[in-house]
Amino acid sequence: MKYFWIPCVILAAVFSLSLLNARTVGETVSEWCGELQSAQQSADEGNWAETQRMLAGTYEKWGARQSYFHIVTVHAELDEVEALFAKSRSFALEQDEAEFRANTAELITQLKLLAEMQEISVKNIL
To answer: Please, what is the angle between helix 48-64 and helix 75-94, to 10°?
Structure first.
């Protein structure tokens, strides 16, 4: 009987950690997406200094979580987010509203994809 319970406990622990990871990634990404949307609004108002400050703050938070994300997600997706952050910062420096808006929207979509990849769903399991 003992041989039955040990795998069940291990399986329950792995499942619990997977749920915790999905929640943590989802909450973190939601926070970043909100900040990026605020940066887009700031750019729409023509306040580029505030836009750059907000974008830098979000990128700093992204950098602080890099180790965790490298452990739990696909590296190619992280490289894409990194490239999109660099482009958004560049467009903010150039004050190119159309390109900034388009690129930041793509960045938000890519971040949401990272969170979606961690969700426990049939699509992710199969």
So the answer is: 160
